[in-house]
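Structure tokens
________________
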Amino acid sequence: MVKILFVEDDVALGYALEFSLIDEGYNITRACTISEAKNYFSKEDFNLILLDVNLPDGNGYDFCKYVREASSIPIIFLTALDDEVNIVLGLELGGNDYLTKPFGVGELLARIKVQLRSNKAKELKNTLISSDITVNLTTTNVYKKKELLNLTALEYKLLILFMKKPFSSLRRDDILSSVTSSEEIFFDENTLSVYIKRLREKIEDNPKNPKYITTKRGLGYKWDVEVRSE
């Protein structure tokens, strides 16, 4: 089922649109503030965001920037601010569409469908698959046998580094420079070994006898399974 995060503080409009969207078969989570929206976004996976601009604790543009730091999920702005400056700002900050109030439910539903179709096409072209490991590069979701894995940011960066260079021996120094270029943390070879161990525990059937990330003594590590992209 398609899950939509609906951020709108107008109670009457919020209930009316929520009812219409649920009636169309969408799973709706509604937030009335940016704080609530951030809380929902951090805990759940959504397919699309409907976002008001004027909110009690800030504006939707700030939340859009927050979302874009982690996801390319479609965002449709819903607002009474119909001047060109605001529309351009919303789109430049990462919004996919901009619908000014008042609007018809039919038009909103049509625009939602357009964004979902477009995003689905992007996802299909941005997927890495290696045996039973699947990575959606658009959403950054990682699955093992269709089960969503909970990876940290560094574990995800390590995984992508390996999967984009299958069957290539990667030296520890090269791995360290790749995953720490923008990280202001203490990170050495011992720390790398710990992260490799943790990543193996999440993706391998038998972490003590790994098939994906193998150790090449004196060289580093290698992704030892074929990878294809779709």
Observations:
- DSSP finds eight helices and 14 strands in the chain.
- Residues 133 and 144 are 5 Å apart (CA to CA).
